[in-house]
Amino acid sequence: MTRVSLARIIADELATLRRFDPGARPGGRPRRVVWSEKLPGFGVRYYASGRSTYIVQSLMNGVTRTITLGNANVLSKSQALTVARRILLRAQVGEDPATKRKETRKVPTYDDFLTMYWKQAAAKWKPSTLATHNAYRRKHLDHAFFGMFIDEIEQAHVLTWFNKVSVNGGPGAGNRCFEILRSMFNHAERWGMRPEGSNPCAYIRPNKRRKCERFLSNQEIGRLGEVLSQKIRTQPLHTMIVYLLLLTGCRSSEITDLNWSEVKGGRLLLHDSKTGPRTVWLGNEAQTLLASLERRGSSDPVFWNKLTRRPVRSIREFWKDVKAEANLPGVRVHDLRHSFASHAAARSETLPMIGKLLGHARLQTTSRYAHLDDGPVLDAAERIGELIADAMGDVRSRQQSSA
Fold first, then answer.
1. How far apart are CA 184 and CA 26, in angstroms?
2. 39, 230, 328, 329: least buried by Cβ within 10 Å?
3. What is the arrangement of strands in the sheet containing 63-71, beginning at the earlier edge strand?
4. Are 326 and 224 in contact (CB under 8 A)?
5. What is the tens place of the pLDDT at every residue in 233-265?
């Protein structure tokens, strides 16, 4: 038992007394100590100045602990005896806050655990994912629960932090950081640093995501095609990238980062997509586009610009001009991927097939793309309505003829 933990016990017991003022700490060197015959370990310490104090002394965990109870002029002897008896009894039955504190020290603080988790998790993250997560860590995760041990963090702490991140960084950043934190606490349980089933993120709902319902209709694709047919003369590489995004449903980085070693006839064998290595099947149009490009070394990028002697890695500025000319306000490059999936769904392709084309690891991810254009839905509603109207007309005709 440490001096600090013993002092806590003493403070607890002294708090039961109605009148007690510990006063100033005694000064000067002690002259002598008179120990009680009734209660071993309890005594009165007399100072040269004439002041006297009550003390308690006991052997605890192999160390002799001595601590002052209070001034003998303020605290009566009977009160001091009562407090001393309780202190010694609590120590004898094994109540030792120091032990609990040592156990707590075996559990890392939040910041120390964050460092441990990051070393383990970062090895499995893609470079782009690691760069994104490092940015989130600097802004929102470092020192999020400063001074707290990993097993002390509760749901209320996480909820306060989550609301703050969502306000300062936005709902999307709040959700991404929240998922990282949830994974951290899951690992803390697996590594024995939190009780099983104690994840404080378990019952906190993430922010609602914006539903991505935007995809191009046939008319919009037509306008886009007209603009691209003009742009291909001045910016052929950028234009071909947009064409391939429309024809394959690939993510933008999967096309812009494409190397010739990944182009295998009617397939793209992507080494490192968002969900890992995957195969993208190419139709005749996509194969023709790639065949029109000068094929370089296997490790060279497909979209190499001879003039700048650099590969085309981004079409952000190009897309701004294209969508403005095609009158497609608010359409993102990623919406081309949505369009590919939505048109596949409108043509009755199954969700597993669409998921395979898009390279989804889970069918649940594909289901968010299974929405149809208003045109096919309206056509279907009109066809069904006509059938019902015709049937009702036949019934009315028979009723009128029988009357």
1. 50
2. 329
3. 30-35, 42-47, 52-60, 63-71
4. yes
5. 999 999 999 988 888 888 888 889 888 998 888
